[in-house]
Amino acid sequence: MRIIGGKYKGKKLLLPINKNTRPLKDIVKESIFNLLIHSNKIKIDIADSNVLDLFSGSGSFGIECISRGAKNVYFFENYSEAIKILNKNLLLLKLNHNYKVFEKNCFDFFKENKLKNIFFDIVFIDPPYNELKLNSFLDLIFKKDIISEKTLFIIHRHKKDTIAISEKIQLVEVRNYGISKISLGYPII
User: What global pTM score does this model have?
Assistant: First the structure.
């Protein structure tokens, strides 16, 4: 796995050894960023964005955003082996600012806590394919006053996933890449 663009382009990222974490494949990540840059339906500037990377795994998506100039990235991961890899990736790049790592289950965190004084421009949600509470989790995010009508949601699921994404999100792009389905949309607030 590597960083595709920006300041750290070409740098390799570490991956978890076991199969409990499903890394975001380079081809899928590259396709997402091509959509962010070139789609007429998407209005987002990664540079100077606040990014919420949920179910971060090795941190590939959030680190790609940092490489492309994101202002802040908040990583959420609760699997200890993935956290170790995420932290190693951040150390390898000698990143010491503009990110925060939460070693927490994001469902539990957002039920009990609020990220204060921050609004997110991009929310990337990449739960395990067998996670069925996606819409319940989206409801939690909507209640936390951390998004605006301009916040772009990017949701990564298995292409055979049959869970309809919440009607609170107006989808503007849905694409399949291999076994991955990427849904992009804006909140209806």
Answer: 0.94
